[in-house]
Task: inverse folding
């Protein structure tokens, strides 16, 4: 496939965007178009409101079609996924290194919103054999660069499923976004998560402190990813 064809396939389906007509967003939009050839902007237009984290809108392009791996598929959350999402949110073991469990009503409220009105970047991990939701995660801009996060239901730990899902999301990201960097952060003591990231090809970039705990930042770089 020619380079031009690859480029056009990569950028042909940006997410649908909410129109926010603030002077700042318009300025950013122009700057983004000006810089597009230099690949310094995401193909995701953002709300661009000062003080608000930049989030793309949900759109028909997000994980449509679902991304298929050998054993798992990754897709946007949908109605029917609620119980699996609730189970993870209230499980103290699953939430041990990611903020602790939430109470049942909060978990149910979040799961219902996610299933009915998924945001761009939210995904679930499905075991292809049993068609069971085994985990979930997100692509989001929590602290600047795009960041991937993930969790599995406890019964599905230790089978390499999160690793496969992470690789699928990483490849989707570098295929469909103009970004060169994808990060993941994890508590230093979360050995399973750190091993998972290292096995998926992320490099350890830095250590920082958050909530009084040592956190590790890992990075995936486009330039070092295997061609998809
Ligand atoms: C982190 C998590 C997604 C890993 O998923 P998983 O499918 O069980 O991962 P794997 O089975 O591929 O194991 C990953 C690696 O960690 C190791 N590992 C697993 N549990 C471990 C533990 N308790 N202590 C040390 N190492 C562990 C595995 O041996 C494997 O290492 P290897 O590649 O050298 O064999 C899963 O444990 C989870 O959902 N945890 C709770 C949520 C969470 O912490 N998410 C990460 C947020 S940053």
Result:
């Amino acid at each position: 496939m020619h380079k031009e064809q690859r480029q056009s396939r990569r950028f042909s389906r940006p997410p649908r965007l909410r129109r926010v007509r603030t002077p700042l967003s318009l300025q950013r939009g122009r700057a983004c178009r000006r810089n597009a050839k230099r690949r310094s902007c995401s193909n995701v237009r953002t709300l661009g409101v000062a003080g608000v984290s930049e989030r793309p809108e949900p759109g028909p392009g997000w994980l449509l079609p679902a991304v298929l791996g050998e054993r798992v598929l990754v897709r946007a959350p949908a109605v029917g996924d609620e119980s699996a999402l609730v189970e993870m949110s209230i499980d103290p073991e699953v939430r041990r290194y990611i903020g602790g469990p939430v109470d049942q009503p909060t978990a149910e409220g979040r799961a219902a919103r996610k299933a009915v009105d998924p945001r761009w970047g939210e995904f679930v991990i499905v075991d292809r054999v049993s068609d069971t939701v085994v985990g979930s995660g997100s692509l989001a801009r929590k602290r600047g660069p795009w960041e991937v996060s993930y969790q599995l239901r406890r019964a599905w730990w230790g089978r390499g499923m999160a690793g496969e899902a992470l690789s699928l999301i990483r490849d989707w990201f570098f295929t469909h976004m103009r970004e060169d960097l994808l990060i993941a952060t994890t508590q230093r003591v979360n050995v399973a998560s750190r091993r998972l990231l290292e096995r998926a090809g992320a490099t350890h970039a830095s250590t920082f402190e958050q909530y009084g705990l040592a956190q590790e930042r890992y990075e995936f770089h486009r330039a070092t990813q295997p061609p998809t």
